Amino acid sequence: MMLRSKLNYFILLNFYLTIVVFGYQDGGSLFSQISQQPTTSFPVTENVDHAKLSEIDDCGPPPDLQYGELKEVYMDTNKFPKDNIVYYKCRPGYAPVRNTKTYITCLGKSQWSSPDVFCNPACGPPPVLEYGDLQENFVEVAYFPVGDKVYYKCKPDYVYVQGTKKDITCLEELEWSVPDIFCKPAPTCGPPPGIQDLEPKEAYLSRTSFAIKEKVEFQCRPGYTFSLFRFRNIAASCESNLKWSFSHPISNTFCKRKSCGNPGEIINGAFEADDFTFGSKAVYKCNNGYRMLTKRNYRECLADGQWSNITPECEAVICENPSALTNGYYSPDKDQYEYLDSVKYSCHQGLELIGEASVYCTSDGNWSSNPPECKVVRCPEPESVPNSRKTSGFYGPYKLNFAVTYECFRGYQMVGSTSVKCNVNNEWEPALPKCLGKCLLEPPSLEYAELDENIFGKTFLEDSEVSYRCREGYEPVPGTEPSIKCLGKKGWSTPQRFCTLRSCGNPGEIENGRMIATNNFLFKSYVIYNCSKGYKMISNSKLYCQADGTWSSPPPTCEEIICATPSITDGTYSPEKMKYSEMDLLTFSCNGNLKLIGDHSLHCVSPGVWNSSVPECQALCDSPPVIENTVLEIQFADSSYFDINATVQYVCQPGFSQMPNTSNTITCTNNLTWSTPETSCLRRSCGNPGEIPNAQMEATDFLFESKVSYHCLTGYKLATSINFRQCQANGNWSEIIPACEVQTCPVPHTGPKESYRPQKKKYQYQDSISYKCHDGLSLFGKTSLTCTEHGKWSSFTPHCKESQCDKIWAIQEEMRKCTSTPDDWIKYLQVEYLHLQIENLKLDIEWKKKGRKQ
Asked: Dihedrals φ, ψ of 682, to 5°?
């Protein structure tokens, strides 16, 4: 019994430890099932309608004012809640008073606050002037307070008169001051410009001036007519810029020359003409063998469309009888020889015919050549040519046109004709040739000179010469010859230097400056001049020695840098000096509270100018004040100063809306301050964005830039990338709407010894499954698992193994049969317990791994 108790003790202890292990892991699952309490969300409160709460404490109609009247928006309202504000505007004949309130407030119990006197009697519309128009910002203003000024601009066709004022002032008598005559009529246009082939019509030719917008009509010049019908109304207008504007684009094709038609054909002749229009000339020519009978051989197309002169005529050409031939004769012999008739000459026997054997009658009435002659011809034996041999004509006699030919030996080139003939003067012609040696190399290239001819492909023979010319910037050396000679096989003769660099001479020093020179004033050298401090360079500071031996320009001069004395109206500058030199500094300031427009200080810089324009002093307002949640209209945003009476307009920033019944403009007043702004911009509302399924909403308000957050309920998870919506500037909520979807758990994995029910493709929050072992096995772990809000099962997957109880009973049966001592069994059981602990530890590690994967 003691042995059984100890065994049971160890087994129970082992089971207890296993339960502790399982309990720890189950406890972790249990702890994980403790859900967080959802964040408390507060309902969003809408704006309270205070008007309903104050109905018992309101005001009746606002009071009537002598100088002001309610704005139209309040005309049909008889009851106003407490704290409500109503705005007035000035009555006709009154103008606003600067820096006063144009509204009153309901104090409750039918009491209104006391109004300011915000309008005063005013001048009516400014007078209409013959020569000027009101500037645009005064046109729509009906009344002007005392002291206000309005400004005019010159009408079209008028120009401003310098030194006059373009403004008038509203006087205390509520009348306008007398205006200056500040505009005068604009100048007129001179005569219109001439256009090729066009001229003004006769009515305009004698005039020298034309009024603005006056038109001048044009016509074609004599001898021309309009090329198209639509050009018959060409005119030019005198524009306001005193330039002429034409009714058609300027073109050279407005007019075309008049046509005279065909000038007429002639017998035995023809004419040549570019065309048959005005200014053209038809030139007549007789055919070959005919000559002109009339004095003029041309006709001209005149401005009236008629041809000048009469049509020319042609007659046949006759040649005189040919001259007789001594010791010879010609044939045929006729009484009259006409154009192209010919005769043939012949000599008596033994004589040579010298000249043309046949002549003919030409188109000018003369024979084609002089008559030949008959004579005896014999040439002497020709001389021998060195370095050559004869190839024909070895023996005489050498009669007329008898030829002798030569050829040069190898290595020599013939100069002259290879053949000579015996001529009528008993001489050989041309002169006998020469056979000369060659220069194998081209003429040398020289740094100071270049060949005077193109030698590409040329052959140079003995005794031939080539000439050089000096390169650009070089000049000939007196007494030298710019050429070399070919010495045949010996090459070229050695040239002597026949060109030298050209000098420009010393250009000289300058006053109030100095010169830096290079290369002894020779070609391509240069000199640089620098002025002393306080002086500026007049003309080029760098001179180059040119190829023709002259400097690129005369030496410069250095002139003292002096800036002109500036002038500023309604302002001063310092220091005041008789003369301002380089780097002198002037500081400007304006009288009174006038604004300085431009740079506050100027420097005198080279070449004697101020580094910027002289500033101006003007009565201007500074930049308008910054109003919360507003921006200036874009046309006013970049301006630093504004004229008196200038009005600027504000607009609400994106996401804000203007408060009703308030003005969004302010005006620059006479005291150079801005009128009190009324503009108030409130955040725009996007309205309630609405709830979403399976979520709670959190928000403070629904106004611009606010966010509403959505939190999914327990068992649901966020299906979108964000969990909020934001109110945008356009009054809409951001487009992405959060969504919550039910939480899911993965499909469980099982081994071959266990199974679970129910089996689904998808398990959602709070779904449960139950495990079961196959027959003869025991379940280690929880038999039931639940899908939690975190998407995990409430415990690890259980496992089925053989029952330990059967093993324990087997051990007890063996103990009955065994004769071992109790101590031996205790040791055995301890070893078995250690083995069970190791097995339990392995299971524990395996379960933890599977739990992480889930």
From this structure: -110, 150
Give pLDDT, residue 504: 92
Alpha-carbon gap, residue 570 to 257, rounded angstroms: 67
Q: How far apart are the first and last CA of the chain?
A: 47
Q: How many CB atoms lie within 10 A of CB 666?
A: 22
Cα–Cα distance between 71 and 261 in angstroms, integer? Answer: 85
Residue 707: helix, strand or coil by DSSP?
strand
Tokens standing for 816?
A: 């009955």
β partners of residue 755? 772
Closest CA to 367 of 378, 354, 356: 356
Q: How is 542-603 classified by DSSP, letter by letter?
A: EEEB-TTSSBSS---EEEE-EEPPP--TTEEEE---S-EETT-EEEEEESTT-EEES-SEEE
Q: Is residue 675 within 8 Å of 663, Cβ to Cβ?
A: no
Instruction: Count the Cβ atoms, other than its own, within 10 Å of residue 357.
Output: 13
What pLDDT does residue 740 have? 93
Burial (0-12, 13-18, 19+ Cβ within 10 Å), 544: middle
What is the tally of helices (H) and strands (E) in the chain? 6, 75
Walking along the chain (854 residues) 10 residues at a time, the average pLDDT comes out as 38 40 35 32 37 64 90 86 91 88 91 92 92 90 89 86 91 92 86 84 84 86 82 85 83 83 91 91 91 90 90 88 87 87 88 87 88 87 87 85 89 88 89 87 88 83 89 90 86 88 91 88 91 89 92 92 90 91 91 88 90 90 89 84 90 90 90 87 90 91 91 91 91 90 89 86 90 84 90 87 65 61 71 77 71 54
3-class state of residue 829 by DSSP: helix
The pLDDT assigned to 589 comes to: 93
pLDDT at 808: 65
Distance of CA 268 to the CA centre of its chain: 70
d(CA 742, CA 717) in angstroms, rounded, equals: 6
Closest CA to 630 of 599, 663, 597: 663
With beta carbons less than 8 A apart as the criterion, state whether 637 and 649 touch: no
Element (H, E) at 23: helix 2-32
**For residue 813, what are its two tokens?**
């049966």
- Res 421: pLDDT: 92
* DSSP assignment letter at 816: H
Residue type, 720: T
Exposed e or buried b per residue across 508-518, where buried means at least 16 C-beta atoms within 10 angstroms of its C-beta:
eebeebeeeee
**Are 437 and 489 within 8 A, CB to CB?**
yes
Cβ–Cβ under 8 Å, residues 756 and 773: no
Q: Per the confidence metrics, is the pTM higher than 0.70?
A: no
Q: Are strands 352-354 and 373-375 parallel, antiparallel or unpaired?
A: antiparallel
Residue 721: what pLDDT?
87
Interatomic CA distance for residues 324 and 345, integer angstroms? 9
